[in-house]
Amino acid sequence: MSHRSFTRRTTSTVAGLAVVALAATGCGGDDADTGGGGGGDAAEMETIQIGTLPIANAAAMNLGVQEGFFEEEGLELEQTVTQTGNEIITGMVGGDYDFGFVGYISAGIAAAQGVPVCALVANDATGTSPEDDWQVLVAAGDSPIDGPEDLAGATVSVNGLGGVAEVMLKAALDKAGVDWSTVELIEVPFPEVPAAVAAGRIDAGYTSEPFVTTVLDQGGKVAFAPQSYIAPEYPNGMYATSQQFLQENPEIAERFEAAMIKSLEYAQENPDAIREIIPTYTQIPEDVAQRMRLPVFQTEMKMDAIEEQMGFLEAYDIVEEAPSAEELVCGD
């Protein structure tokens, strides 16, 4: 594939994927003449299909639609909300979606299995500490678990064995010098973690907002923040595309990236707008949206961190051979 590199980069320090390595079908774009530029009258508008998730992390894209950043680039978004990144990846390579909101880990697993996807533009990262991270391990308020050293022998839930939560937890425990093999991992979906903690079914549970706030409202606590422990503002999610769509529609991909960067910059500068828009496309109540911890929005790919995450996939036997960051990120 030969095309110019779209993605801004910096060099700073799932359960098995249920997709098959498809030859991506001709997808999206409506075969319209893009003209290589954005905005303008309705005749020049390009409709693109987006696979997305009903979570706070998608706020930047929704703000971008609201503020007209995609319209300025001559793009109209049609969103399909799914429940998992794996569904989105399957949809992209099958031609249902032109772009999809997924995690670097999920995309890395797919690419390792020969699925032709690549990371186009960054989106979000974790917080910096247990006090502001939005995807963490929670426990009951009277739990003796107050850090990674207390997890040995504990029963801990993740939303999917072999997925992002398990990979990040093991990497964080390794960094803390804790033998992760002494931790009993079980599957509990994120929304069910508050009830599991309250009932004592688990010692600690990996969950995300708004369920972190739910646990705190119940008198629980954040016991450990694995991802921000690995590194502050650690890359989490991004927008991907199929290799075929990128090869056949480089101008549309460039315009989508430009609109997303405007959207992410706007989100960085307007946290109140994020809180206002979250209830409009999720089931998160307005009062919770006003109090919950927000994702950190990023405009640049942190290549060293992505490379590290791909290494985790091999280290914890998720895949035999993971792609490098350079292979995963769309580019030359």
What does this structure look like?
By secondary structure, the protein is α/β, with parallel strands linked by helices. It folds into 2 domains: 9-126 and 233-328, D-Maltodextrin-Binding Protein, domain 2, CATH 3.40.190.10; 135-230, 3-Layer(aba) Sandwich (D-Maltodextrin-Binding Protein, domain 2). 36% of the residues lie in helices and 19% in strands. The protein has 14 helices and 13 strands. It has helices at 59-67, 69-72, 85-93, 104-112, 164-176, 193-199, 211-217, 226-230, 243-248, 250-269, 271-281, 286-289, 303-315, 325-328; strands spanning 9-10, 46-52, 75-81, 99-103, 117-125, 135-139, 155-158, 184-187, 204-208, 221-224, 235-242, 296-297, 301-302. Strands 3-2-4-11-5-12 form a 6-stranded mixed β-sheet. Strands 8-7-9-6-10 form a 5-stranded mixed β-sheet. The longest helix is centred in the C-terminal third of the chain and has 20 residues, at 250-269. It is globular, with a radius of gyration of 20 Å. It starts with 8 loop residues before the first strand and ends with a helix. 52% of the residues are buried. Residues 1-43 have low confidence and may be disordered.
Largest sheet: 6 strands, mixed
* Name of the level-1 CATH class of the largest domain: Alpha Beta
Using only CA atoms, what is the Rg?
A: 20 Å
CATH fold type of the largest domain: D-Maltodextrin-Binding Protein, domain 2
Mean pLDDT, as a whole number?
88
Number of DSSP helices? 14
CATH architecture of the largest domain: 3-Layer(aba) Sandwich
What's the name of the CATH homologous superfamily of the largest domain? Periplasmic binding protein-like II
Please state how the strands of the largest beta sheet are arranged side by side.
3-2-4-11-5-12
Structural class: alpha/beta
DSSP summary, beta strand count: 13
N-C termini distance: 7 Å
In which range does the helix fraction lie?
Answer: 25-40%
**Strand residue percentage:** 15-25%
Tally of distinct domains = 2
Order of helices and strands: EEHHEHEHEEEHEHEHEHEHHHHEEHH
Shape: globular
Low-confidence stretches: 1-43
Signal peptide: 1-23
Family: Belongs to the bacterial solute-binding protein SsuA/TauA family.
Protein name: NitT/TauT family transport system substrate-binding protein
Organism: Blastococcus colisei
